[in-house]
């Protein structure tokens, strides 16, 4: 990996390079996505089935669109490593336990003058969860999107995922969906699935919100339908930053950097360190790992484009660059990681110490792995229970409470030229 002495110019160049990875820069795909959305909105099932045949090579009908209980039962039999089902259940328990701590209750407060104010918290009624499919299976992503929705109390969870050419869904995906509590599984993916969830078709009911990762067509489709439905976020390529000092194990650090580089040629992995010796040792370890890892070509491209080892003079400088880049995953491997953590303002998820490797968060620990990318950790949070709930304000005034403030409200409304607003207060006391 390249080793760079960090200064203002190099920081500016790196930030510029990283921002090129944003989905907002992929407008060349937007016309194709818009065409799919419009077609599905106008033609419903017919368009969905045609796109599924075109892009996935699978023939669907209204009768074969939904995964049956028989297909799910068969999926359990098809999983060769039965221990995987047990591991999925353990992961669900950890994710559920973490997200249950996020639950909030409706609240009300009252005053002696006859005013009652509050907030009513209501789960969303119907949520669509997009799960990438085809040859790959991502049960961890499925769990991270479904379990918080279940904890929130969503009435109906509809999962969409692209089928293989044989019209089947990966058995691991089906088992994970069943274990997590998905209500309906549909064999459809791509922008056409997003459109169907957003607008509804003859066979697919419109949802209130769409969550879950996908390719650039899925990301742009979610962005386009926002407003018709809610969405979680527009996810960009994966990224990890490691802050480390001379106490860090270079082999561990190198392994953690590469755990993200293997995701995608656009993935970013950055080490920020105060130790030149560690920087050189990590670079050497990275070279060794790359030669033996299965996704060598992807890793090499990722490192070439967005891999950096940044040398800084002080830990405060390391914290400053971490807060500026606002990485999706931030590992802190220093003498006192908890102290360093207190200075971090912007990060999606923070991993403390040499045994808190990022993949632990991806699969098992419990906190959500759906995280803000491309610097959006400056203003976005990880997916959480609140994403599956909505809040309504509660306002109650008795006549005795309204009367002493009525003139204030009337004056405020008149100041804005909204006489009908003022009148709606005035008529309640016109007999005075």
UniProtKB/TrEMBL annotation:
The active site is at residues 328-329. One of its GO terms (molecular function) is histidinol dehydrogenase activity. Its EC number is 1.1.1.23. Zn(2+) binds at residues 260, 263, 362, 421. NAD(+) binds at residues 130, 192, 215. Pathway: Amino-acid biosynthesis; L-histidine biosynthesis; L-histidine from 5-phospho-alpha-D-ribose 1-diphosphate: step 9/9. Binds 1 zinc ion per subunit. The keyword Metal-binding applies. InterPro entries: Ald_DH/histidinol_DH, Histidinol_DH_CS, Histidinol_DH_monofunct, Hstdl_DH. Substrate binds at residues 238, 260, 263, 329, 362, 416, 421. GO terms for cellular component: cytosol. Keywords: Amino-acid biosynthesis, Histidine biosynthesis, Metal-binding, NAD, Oxidoreductase, Zinc. It catalyses: L-histidinol + 2 NAD(+) + H2O = L-histidine + 2 NADH + 3 H(+). GO terms for biological process: L-histidine biosynthetic process. It comes from the Bacteria. Its cofactor is Zn(2+). Catalyzes the sequential NAD-dependent oxidations of L-histidinol to L-histidinaldehyde and then to L-histidine. Belongs to the histidinol dehydrogenase family. This is Histidinol dehydrogenase. It comes from Eubacterium uniforme. The gene is hisD.
């Amino acid at each position: 990996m390249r080793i760079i002495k960090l200064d203002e110019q190099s920081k500016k160049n790196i930030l510029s390079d990283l921002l090129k990875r944003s989905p907002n820069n992929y407008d060349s795909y937007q016309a194709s996505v818009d065409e799919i959305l419009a077609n599905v909105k106008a033609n419903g099932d017919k368009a969905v089935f045609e796109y599924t045949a075109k892009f996935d090579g699978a023939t669907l009908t209204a009768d074969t669109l939904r995964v049956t209980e028989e297909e799910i039962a068969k999926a359990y039999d098809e999983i060769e490593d039965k221990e995987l089902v047990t591991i999925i259940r353990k992961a669900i328990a950890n994710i559920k336990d973490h997200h249950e701590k996020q639950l909030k209750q409706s609240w009300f407060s009252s005053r002696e003058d006859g005013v009652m104010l509050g907030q009513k918290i209501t789960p969303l009624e119907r949520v669509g969860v997009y799960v990438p499919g085809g040859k790959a299976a991502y049960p961890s992503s499925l769990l991270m999107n479904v379990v918080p929705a279940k904890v929130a109390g969503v009435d109906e969870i509809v999962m969409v995922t692209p089928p293989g050419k044989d019209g089947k869904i990966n058995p691991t995906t089906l088992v994970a969906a069943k274990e997590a509590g998905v209500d309906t599984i549909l064999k459809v993916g791509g922008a056409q699935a997003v459109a169907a969830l957003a607008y509804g078709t003859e066979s697919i009911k419109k949802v209130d919100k769409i969550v879950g990762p996908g390719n650039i067509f899925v990301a742009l489709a979610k962005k386009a339908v926002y407003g018709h439905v809610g969405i979680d976020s527009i996810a960009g390529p994966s990224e990890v930053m490691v802050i480390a000092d001379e106490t860090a194990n270079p082999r561990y650090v190198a392994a953690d950097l590469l755990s993200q580089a293997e995701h995608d040629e656009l993935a970013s992995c950055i080490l920020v360190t105060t130790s030149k010796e560690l920087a050189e040792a990590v670079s050497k370890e990275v070279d060794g790992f790359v030669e033996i890892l299965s996704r060598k070509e992807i890793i090499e491209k990722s490192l070439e484009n967005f891999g950096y080892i940044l040398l800084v003079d002080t830990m405060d400088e390391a914290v400053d660059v971490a807060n500026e880049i606002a990485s999706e995953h931030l590992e802190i491997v220093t003498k006192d990681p908890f102290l360093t953590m207190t200075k971090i303002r912007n990060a999606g998820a923070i991993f403390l110490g040499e045994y808190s490797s990022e993949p632990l968060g991806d699969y098992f620990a419990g906190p959500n792995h759906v995280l803000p990318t491309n610097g959006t950790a400056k203003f976005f949070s990880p997916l959480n229970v609140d994403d599956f709930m909505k809040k309504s304000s509660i306002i109650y005034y008795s006549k005795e409470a309204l009367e002493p403030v009525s003139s204030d409200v009337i004056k405020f409304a008149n100041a804005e030229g909204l006489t009908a607003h003022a009148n709606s207060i005035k008529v309640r006391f016109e007999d005075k």
